[in-house]
Design a protein that fits this description.
This protein is α/β, with parallel strands linked by helices. The chain has helices spanning 4-23, 97-101, 105-132, 168-179, 200-211, 225-230; strands at residues 42-45, 50-57, 77-85, 87-96, 149-151, 157-159, 161-162, 193-198, 233-236, 255-259, 265-277, 286-298, 305-308. A hairpin with a 5-residue loop joins strand 5 (149-151) and strand 6 (157-159).
Length: 311
């Protein structure tokens, strides 16, 4: 005969096994991105409820000096304080005591499996929100949108927005823009393009542009530099998409080009945790199974990102 404590432990073990199996399940291909795709969301752990930082402006290029000339001192600066709070996510399900007593495994397994899947999707929806809002809601420390006009700490103005639907020509425009992107001191960084992020409807087109051995859809085929030289990795997610009646803030035309030194960061305060309240503490003989995690996604700067609305 199991004691109440032992029964609670058995029930939680069963629930956790089903939850973790579905939460950790990965049926994606290498090009289908999730919140755990480190190329798009640089992982970072934090031990507090908010992260405070300022943007750094380094020095300019090294000046020429004479043989015994005085070594100049570069003007450096920090400004644009940014406070990023960690978000809390949680949900729970009530599970009948009779389901377990009568071993109705299919009922509670479906319930917990659905909960786990929704937890995983919540992470993805939240993570890709930074790109969905890149042109209108996602702000960097300078107060500008992630993709848009930025005021540099040296006083200059810079825009990382390119125009046009995704094509070999506009992709080249984005590569040039990324290569010529300046830092806060106005120094051109020479960023190398690495990742092309597109919504689902552009995925086929993006692969054709970047992976064809020769230039696609032309009579005189030339070498495809996007494959042979740049080696771009294409990523896609349905959580970038506009889906009528479901996802109104997404887009089927917007696309992004990133270098490896971009600053889009997924900051995790607490990974997924589960807890089970015993049925004896309820007034309707139900277990309460809950899960929660704490994280946020943000980008303090525009560095390493260019984007287009696709128009």
């Amino acid at each position: 005969m199991l004691t109440e404590a032992q029964n609670l432990a058995v029930v939680r073990t069963e629930l956790d096994r089903v939850f973790k199996q579905n939460f950790d399940y990965d049926d994606t291909t290498p090009s289908i991105a999730t919140a755990n795709t480190a190329a798009l969301f640089k992982p970072m752990t934090i031990d507090r409820q908010a992260y405070i930082e300022e943007i750094y402006k380094g020095g300019g290029l090294f000046p020429k000096i004479g043989e015994v000339g005085q070594v100049p001192v570069s003007d450096i600066k920090v400004a644009n304080k940014l406070i990023t709070p960690v978000l809390d996510f949680a949900d729970s399900r009530e599970l009948s005591k009779n389901w377990f007593d009568d071993q109705l495994h299919n009922l509670w397994q479906h319930t917990v499996a659905d909960m786990a899947m929704k937890a995983r999707i919540t992470q993805d929806v939240n993570a890709f929100g930074i790109y969905r809002g890149a042109f209108a809601t996602t702000l960097t420390a300078d107060g500008g949108y992630l993709v848009g006009t930025h005021t540099l700490l040296n006083g200059q103005s810079y825009s990382n927005l390119v125009t046009g639907a995704l094509s070999p020509t506009t992709l080249n425009d984005a590569i040039v823009a990324l290569r010529q992107q300046p830092d806060q001191a106005g120094v051109v960084l020479g960023n190398a393009p690495a990742y092309l992020l597109v919504p689902s409807k552009l995925f086929k087109h993006a692969i054709e542009i970047t992976q064809s051995a020769l230039i696609a859809d032309v009579a005189n085929n030339n070498v495809n530099v996007y494959r042979s030289i740049y080696g771009l990795t294409v990523y896609s997610s349905p959580y970038l998409d506009y889906i009528a009646g479901f996802t109104s803030d997404g887009s089927d035309t917007a696309w992004f080009l990133l270098s490896k030194n971009h600053t889009v960061t997924r900051m995790v305060r607490q990974g997924l945790q589960t807890f089970l309240r015993d049925w004896g503490y309820s007034n309707n003989r139900t277990y309460n199974y809950q899960a929660n995690f704490r994280e946020t996604v943000y980008s303090p700067d525009y560095i390493g990102v260019v984007g287009s609305l696709g128009t």
